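Raw record, unedited: GCF C-terminal domain-containing protein
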Amino acid sequence: VPSAGCIAAARRRRPLARPQADYLPLDVSNDRQPSWRRESSDSENEDESDMNNLHFVPKMRTLRQRMAEHMVPVGDESSEDEAETKWEEQQIKKAVKLPQETYSDASLCKPQPAKPTFGPCVSLPPVNLETIKKQLAERIASLQDVHRAHQREYGKYMEDIESSKITVQELEKSSDAAMNYKFYRGMKTYVENLVNCFNEKLKYIDELESAVHALLQQQATSVLKRRQDDLKMESAYMQHLTAGNGKPTNDGLESDERMKLLKHRRACRRQLRARSQKAAHHEGMSSDDELCVTELAEFQKSKDNILEESRKIFEDVHADFCDIRKILLKFQEWKEKFPDSYCDAYISFCLPKLLNPLIRVQLINWSPFEQNSADLEEMPWFRAVKEFSDVKKSSESKRDGDPDEEVLPRVIERTILPKITAFVKSVWDPLSTSQTENLIRLCNNVFEKQVLSRSECSQAKQDLINMVVLRMKKSVEEDVFIPVYPKSAVEDKSSPCSQFQERRFWSAVKLLSNVLLWDGIVQEDTVRDLGLSKLLNRYLLLNLFNTPPGPENIEKCKEVVARFPERWFQNLGSGSTLPELLNFCQHLLQCARTLHRNNHSDETEEVILLLVKVKALCIAEELIEEYKLEHLRSLIRK
């Protein structure tokens, strides 16, 4: 047998010898083939035969051969068939025995079936169609509730998604953060400087405002004190005359001088009314608030000095910090650039307080009682704030309403109304018709035209109304005085006592007229209590009872009825008048009967007309039926 080295050397020589057809055949007995293809095929077949015939290791034996070799010796040829037969029998036995063991094991592991047990008989509820329908309906309702809850949750998620998309878009469209920071930084610095400026000037504004208010209060107090002193002096003078003692002896010279001065002022007022051609005026209805030339000059000089000082308050301040229009333009720029942050900063709530010092400076020379005083609408601060409030809201804002619409009402509530309340408390004279009319006109303008409907229950407005009521009560208690004299002292209409009594009566009628002018602003119950219960029933009726029925009495009753607001009598039913006017209507009834007995038919008809005006229809019908005045029945039907 050739060795492995020889075989490898022969294989290396064979490819080298093939191109020259020079090789060493393994079988030297065969002849050399002439063809190269034949030679190559022979060489390949020879290689394959060599590889097939070479056995370097023993062949693998089968399992049967190995078991047979184990059971019998290898050299025992006779027992080979017998061993193979035994092996086959053993394998067959194993194949038959294995399924039986598996079946026996499975039968042992199989659980024993439980024996059925029968309990006591249980009666089940009857099942009908209605029960099944009810259960199905409840099940459907439960599923519908769950479905609706899922729908709501789905809607909420969709809203959150849309909101997130909008937020993302806004953030993408937002301007440069550096520019925004620069604007906010500049605005913060401007507001800080503005507040510091106002804090420094505020004490000077308070001093000048207090000085003007004290000057006006001093003037009003002087007029009120003079009127009360004149009333006391004249009343004492008339008391001495009725007592028959002649002129008073104590301080007689001083009393004469004051009486002469009082008569001189009355004569001047008569001349003034004659030049102005005022008709239907009664003595005692003048306010008697004239000041002498010296007092007027001193008052005007002091006021001019205060106004001159007020002009110097902001003379060292740049216009950007003392001009209301320019200040509002700064905030308007903020509103146009960043409307949402403007609203979030509550600027509309801060502006009224911020502008308060500048508005008060412009109001130093303003008085709600003077005829020549400028209207609020004509003042620069009012026009500037009005223009700022009327500017349309930016379309970029997501807010529904414009908060700047409330800036002007808040300015009026926080600055104007407290100032008016201070004037009413210290300066207003309820006996002055001109002051009362100007004040009522201003209040109507503020409460109705200045869009204060959203602040109807504001504390400042309520404080103003309460102060008006308090001042009218004080005037009724201190300024009304109607003396009662014997008939002998007042029969002569030219006598001093009669003239003094008439002046006091018409002064009370004037106060009644001023009180009733507040109807519509002050509560009706309060006005009726002051005007009817206290003034009419307590003072005026006493004088009417002591006045003989006739043209003079009817004239007084007409003037009183003319002051009553017509709306008080619009919704009265059952032919009765106001409860506060029952005594007054009884007086008219007595006057009508007396006049009819004295054959004064025209005056009687006038009294019946007065009863109809105050809706005392029952009393009027009684008079018509009693005196057969059928031609007046048509007035009642109207």
